[in-house]
Design a protein that fits this description.
With about 70 residues, the chain is mostly helical. About 65% of the residues lie in helices and about 10% in strands. The radius of gyration is 13 Å and the shape is flat.
């Protein structure tokens, strides 16, 4: 069951990545966060407005990939 869960997480991350890249390619602003709690904290602080973005992605693995890609 653990192995299946790990595979599902990877599929979810690949799907989130593909959607984010496609959205950017079509001119949408994309907001990505590692966790929902991090996003909620930013929203409560008023530092982020979800309405400014065409797509919001919350995925820890995606953020790790972006950090490697942009780092």
């Amino acid at each position: 069951a653990l192995r299946e869960w790990e595979a599902l997480r990877k599929v979810k991350t690949h799907l989130a990545t593909a959607l984010a890249v496609k959205a950017c390619g079509h001119g949408f602003k994309v907001l990505a966060y590692t966790t929902m709690s991090a996003l909620v904290a930013r929203l409560k602080e008023g530092q982020t407005r979800v309405t400014d973005f065409g797509l919001v992605v919350v995925d820890e693995e995606l953020m790790k990939q972006l950090a490697v890609h942009n780092g």
